[in-house]
What we know:
Strand content: 25-35%
CATH architecture: Beta Barrel
Number of domains: 1
Number of helices: 1
Structural class: mainly beta
Shape: globular
Amino acid sequence: MYAPSTQRLFVASGNVRPARILALSTSTEETAAEATGVTAPVIGVSVNAYKFPYGSYEQQALPYAAQTGDAIPYRGAGMQGEVLAGAAISNLGRPLVSDGSGRAVSLTPAAPGTTVNWIVGFPIDTAAVADETIRLWVAPVATVLS
């Protein structure tokens, strides 16, 4: 019996590295790429795995979870995923957003304003420094905080 997936399929509009925050394309349907900041709608995080077997020539030459035109394996809303930290993360109650390269950073509280910040989720683990992989609960949502 066929059971359709409840998770949407998104195609990579560029190369996607493992454990990166993914942003939805605002111009092309069912397309996503690595997030480059807090203002693009996020869908989740790419899986923490390579497209090709680890240690293979292909993996070393093309260290991506998905390449342009591939379906992106990702963790979406309500799932637990892994993401690369863009800075130290110490407050497990502070939402995570994307830095300029799809890594997770804590959202800095600010006075209410008009800028929409896209939150990807909440950390399960802390990170002492940038480039550590941490677990998170994926809960994509937009909020106006700064």
